[in-house]
């Protein structure tokens, strides 16, 4: 099997680079045709890997690619999930090379989507090809690669609900998360949920002269800043009434295990060029970024931002606000609590409007399941070290829905690193990680089939 991977190293990489060259940005309708081209590329690659079935399912949004290889209905079935859409590459001027013209430097692929998630899901396509070419496939495989993960997976939700029978499986395998380091393999056992909304604060019915009216009429930007500032207290606790009601508090031993993972605070600060970290009092940086909920402003605008000075009292101000959620918070409930609170703290001198965007539930998976064990054994075999279970801070909203609709847990066997720069300029993915993934995935199927048989 490893012979086959070795012999096809360049072919595998060149195919991935071709996929990366398609600018499949789901958020921007300008790229609609590229989304179709990327879906066709993924369909053809699954078919060429040797699947019995590989097809495109249209949705009101971007297409979903589905393929399968059923070798024996009595064997366990693994559903592989990934996404071929990528985040917008803006701002382009911050890239050292064009985002959709991949370059290889210092054994890393630099391009948008290199890691998230093209580099990662494509490892599964090449692992399937390898297993079929070497006659070593031990499970049935279903593959679902969607095009709307980065914009909330809303049509995939409908698709999953309508195709429960087709997607029936024993477990779900996903590579769309990170490990601690190349020599410290780890597996994420949780994801945070998400509530994302946009707020607008409106004062007077038009922009005003800040000398003539200033001091007498509310300035929506000042008001918005005061409202946002009040959403956290001096200890970094979120002040929305009821926000923490359902938050799962970890036991002392769970916290100790989480904090036992290798983490160097000084390195962390140095890497980010910061003097100090910041967050909720009483929790470590590892905890703050994984098992504690957050509230962040992602963008804020209003008033005059052109050259020079313009004296104006603007009529409105806006912000995009997101909250990362942990078990057992519900994105819908948190959205309602935020809305109620934000309306309640608005002074009568302004009006506020709140528009919810996408959301998703948090997720955890136990480490004593057969599927977790199989992933652990696979990584131990390929890395020579037992992977550490960690809790991730990011979100993949469809994972909680899989559990709800398909009744199955997902295993987050990701091969990326936090330094890969997902969503930012100069995103990259290590060649080591790409090939290590292709080598490890077949080992998952091998161990999973064995463990299931002995069940
Ligand atoms: N692959 C990421 C999520 C991720 C990255 C999880 C690293 C753990 C470690 C995914 O593509 C992503 O970016 N998700 C979004 C949510 C989505 C609704 C836009 C996120 O986490 O912001
Ligand atoms: Mn992703
Ligand atoms: Mn992403």
UniProtKB/TrEMBL annotation:
UniProt keyword list: Hydrolase, Metal-binding, Protease
Peptidase M20 dimerisation domain residues: 190-348
Keyword Hydrolase recorded: yes
Stored InterPro entries: Cyt/Met_Dipeptidase, Peptidase_M20, Peptidase_M20_dimer
Entry keyword Metal-binding: yes
UniProt GO BP: proteolysis
Gene Ontology MF terms: metal ion binding; peptidase activity
CDD domains for the chain: M20_dipept_like (cd05680)
Pfam families in the cross-refs: M20_dimer (PF07687), Peptidase_M20 (PF01546)
NCBIfam families: PRK07907.1, PRK08201.1, PRK09104.1
Listed name of the protein: Acetylornithine deacetylase/Succinyl-diaminopimelate desuccinylase
Lineage of the species this protein comes from: Bacteria, Pseudomonadati, Bacteroidota, Cytophagia, Cytophagales
């Amino acid at each position: 099997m490893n012979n086959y991977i070795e012999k096809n190293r360049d072919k595998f990489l060149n195919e991935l680079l071709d996929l990366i060259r398609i600018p499949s940005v789901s958020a921007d309708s300008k790229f609609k045709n590229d989304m179709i081209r990327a879906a066709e590329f993924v369909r053809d690659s699954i078919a060429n890997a040797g699947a019995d079935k590989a097809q495109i399912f249209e949705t009101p949004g971007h297409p979903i690619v589905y393929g399968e290889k059923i070798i024996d209905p009595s064997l366990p079935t693994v559903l592989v999930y990934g996404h071929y859409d990528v985040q917008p590459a803006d701002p382009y001027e911050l890239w050292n090379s064009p985002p959709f013209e991949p370059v290889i430097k210092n054994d890393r692929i630099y391009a948008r989507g290199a890691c998230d998630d093209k580099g990662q899901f494509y490892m599964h396509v090449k692992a399937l090809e390898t297993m079929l070419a070497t006659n070593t496939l031990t499970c049935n495989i279903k593959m679902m690669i969607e095009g709307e993960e980065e914009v909330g997976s809303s049509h995939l939700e409908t698709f999953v609900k309508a195709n429960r029978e087709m997607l029936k499986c024993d477990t779900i395998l996903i590579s769309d998360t990170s490990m601690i380091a190349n020599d410290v393999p780890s597996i994420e056992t949780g994801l945070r949920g998400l509530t994302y909304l946009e707020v607008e604060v409106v004062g007077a019915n038009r922009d005003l002269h800040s000398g003539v009216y200033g001091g007498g009429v509310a300035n929506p930007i000042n008001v918005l800043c005061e409202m946002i500032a009040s959403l956290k207290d001096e200890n970094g606790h979120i002040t929305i009434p009821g926000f923490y009601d359902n938050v799962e508090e970890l036991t002392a031993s769970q916290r100790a295990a989480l904090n036992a993972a290798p983490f160097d605070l000084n390195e962390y600060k140095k890497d980010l060029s910061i003097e100090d970290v910041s967050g909720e009092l009483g929790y470590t940086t590892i905890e703050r970024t994984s098992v504690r909920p957050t509230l962040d402003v992602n963008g804020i605008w209003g008033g005059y931002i052109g050259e020079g000075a313009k004296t104006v009292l603007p009529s409105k101000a806006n912000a995009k606000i997101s909250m990362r959620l942990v078990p057992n918070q519900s994105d819908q409930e948190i959205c309602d609590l935020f809305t109620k609170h934000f309306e309640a703290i608005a002074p009568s001198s302004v009006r506020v409007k709140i528009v919810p965007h996408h959301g998703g539930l948090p997720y955890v998976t136990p480490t004593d399941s057969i599927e977790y064990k199989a992933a652990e054994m696979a990584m131990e075999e390929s890395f020579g070290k037992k992977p550490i279970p960690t809790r991730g801070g990011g979100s993949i909203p469809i994972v909680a829905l899989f559990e709800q609709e398909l009744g199955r847990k997902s295993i987050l066997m990701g091969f990326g690193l936090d330094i890969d720069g997902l969503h930012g300029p100069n995103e990259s993915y290590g060649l080591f990680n790409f090939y290590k993934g292709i080598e490890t995935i077949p080992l998952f199927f091998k161990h999973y089939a064995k463990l299931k048989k002995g069940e």
